[in-house]
Specification:
The chain is α+β, with helices and mostly antiparallel strands. It has 3 domains: 180 residues, no CATH class; 62 residues, no CATH class; 121 residues, no CATH class. Helix content is 60%, strand content 17%. It contains 14 helices and 11 strands. The strands form 2 sheets. It has a 6-stranded mixed β-barrel. It has a 4-stranded antiparallel β-sheet with strand order 2-10-1-11. It is elongated, with a radius of gyration of 35 Å. It starts with a helix and ends with a helix. About 3% of the residues have low confidence.
Amino acid sequence: MPEQKISKKRGLHTGALAGMIRQSLSLSLQNIRANKMRTFLTTLGIIIGVTAVISLITIVNGVIDTVMSEFSSLGAGTLTVSVTGTPFKRGLTESDMEKILELDNVSGLSPTISTVAAAARGEELFDQVSIQGKSADYYENNQLVTVGRPITKVDTENESYVCVIDQDLADNLFPGETPIGKNIMLAGVSYLVIGLEGQNDDLMAAMSGFGSNSDGTAVIPYTTAKHLTGSAGITSLEIYMEDTDRADELTDEVKNVLDQAFNHKDNTYSVFSLDSILEMMDTMMKTFTYMLVGIASIALLVGGIGIMNMMLVSVSERTKEIGLRKAMGATPGRIQLQFLMESVVLSLIGGIIGVIVGLLISWVAALLLETDFVISVAAVALGVGFSTAVGIIFGWAPAKKASQLSPIDALRSE
């Protein structure tokens, strides 16, 4: 029996609390509707603040995702080696590259030999064509050829006079024609065109050398390029790894091979991984995002001050109402709950409108910037949470003031 009485009392208490909250909410909404213009002006600061936070986080995250995916497609899982060499050894030999290729986590490597020479076909001559010497592994790890075939290991081993050209060079030498299977002259030597790369207006094309000049680019086997340029060794090398999680381990192993190749001389080479650059960029972007959110949050602070100001005015205007309610038995806690509820409702209204406007602005910005638009649940939660916290924090003082008014003094106020 005692347990039943306790349970019944708890039920009555919970029901009374729920009823009190519903009544406070109803009174808050009535007062908000009665002062529409003041409500709008008061919540404007919250709307602007939440809109800024939501739009900045969403837009910056979309830009970060797009940029990171572009860079990842360029060479995630790739180590790049740049060799300066010594007076006695300017570059890497085939033996050095074989030792690197034998390392556990290496799936392939591609030397790069670059030069600029003239390209001709018939009477057409272009003297600023970029010629790149690459291996078969380069095309196995970068799907660039859209028509024809890429350079193969047979081409490299046989030092074949074949080439893959980009769209710029194709437009210059073969306007309105298909270049596959036809010959062009590169540095006075005839090469068979075996492949065509797609449009070179993306980031990968720019990084690989395509689009570096208006005349275009031709890629030939690196073994053929060595003879063309008279290179004694390889000074640039891309190493493709099987497991990107072991990038640091592979970097150390590659450095060990290079140290042996150059007798542990300092400043003879550099090795960097795009993955480490991506991590650094990600950290920088996140720091930038936090900074922007911090700046945007100032608007929320201003909005909170506006809400506190309105609630203090409301307490002054409704002093007689507060005194009447207290005289009729309303407790200080109930008065405080009513005004606190009104402050939170105002903040939530501003927060919800801010979230909607912020997402709309982010969507339009994503279309204009051609980036990904991904709704960030964390950003939405942050905006709504911020607005609720602002309502509670800045509504507490006015609500406390209202609850502490003396009924007699309140009734005499008018």
